[in-house]
Every structure is written in C-alpha cells, then in structure tokens.
Here is the input.
Amino acid sequence: MLKKKLVTLACAVGILACGACFLPPLPEHLPAPPPVQLELQGVHRIHVVVENASPAHHLDSDKLASWIAVRAKSLGRSKKVTAFGGPSAPDQDGELKVTVLSETATPAQNAKKDGSAEWTFQVNVSAELRNTAGVSVWRENAGNYTFRHQEKPGEEAAVWADNELSDWLTAAVGNRVVSRMLDDR
Here is the structure.
C-alpha cells in the first residue's frame, strides 16, 4: 500500500515538474476586436422609399421597398433599428432612398442539359440614408449588383415576366442593399 502511495506521489510530482513548471507560458490570446458597425447617428426608425429610374422598369418599387423594410427589421434588431415602407410617419428619424438606375439580363452562351440557361442579372442601385436633419448617414453610389440564376432559355422579356424570378431578384437586391448598409465596414 505504501508502495502505491509513493508511486502516485512520484507521478504527481513528475507531472507538476515536467508539465506545469518547466513549460514555457502559453501564448496570450486576445479576444477579437468587436466588428466596426455603422454609426447610425440616432437613426432607429427608417422610412424606405424606392424609385425605379431604370428605362426598363422591371423591378417593382413598392415590392422592393417592402422587402428592404422587412430585411432591415430582421438584420437591424441588434442595432435597435426598424424600417417601414409606404407613407412617411411622424416618428421616423431617417429615410432610406433607393434608386434603381439600370436593370439588365444576359443569358449564358450555352444551355444546360435540362434545357435551362444561366442568366446574369445586373442591377445598378444608388442608395442613401439620411437622418431627419437631412445629414447623410450612409450612402452607396452606383452599387452594381450582379446575380446569377437558372432560367429557361428564351427572350429577355419572357425572363423578366417570370413572377418567381421577379420575387427572387427583388429579395436579392433588397438583401444586398440592407447588408451593405448595416454590415459593411
């Protein structure tokens, strides 16, 4: 019994001597710095206004404004930001004005085996968030957003007429505007 106790004690001393005492100190890991966030300058209730100035007018302005508002509410929760479309409200403290400058669709040269083709959609957007004093809080000048989507091959007009594509592209553009506004450095 005494022999087992001495072996245990010797092992404990060996572990402490080799492992705890003679190893170099572990490197100090500093926590990552907090992400740089948009300084909203008191803007927490944003009125979203969308204008489609594109000659083609493919994206619906009201649908895009609604989607941007929904997405801003979702992503802005941590920043205590909410957004709404429609008419302005007396308790708003900022306005996000989004202008669709152009919309183009280009099909890929070759179709897939299932008959679909990859289309490239480019939507050029200008956006600006202003507080109630009219001071620009955030701005995106001529943001050129590119999206790819599988569609049936055909004429560009038929592709733009697809309601499913319209909803998908509206969501994609709205998501990009909001993520650029709330998350980009």
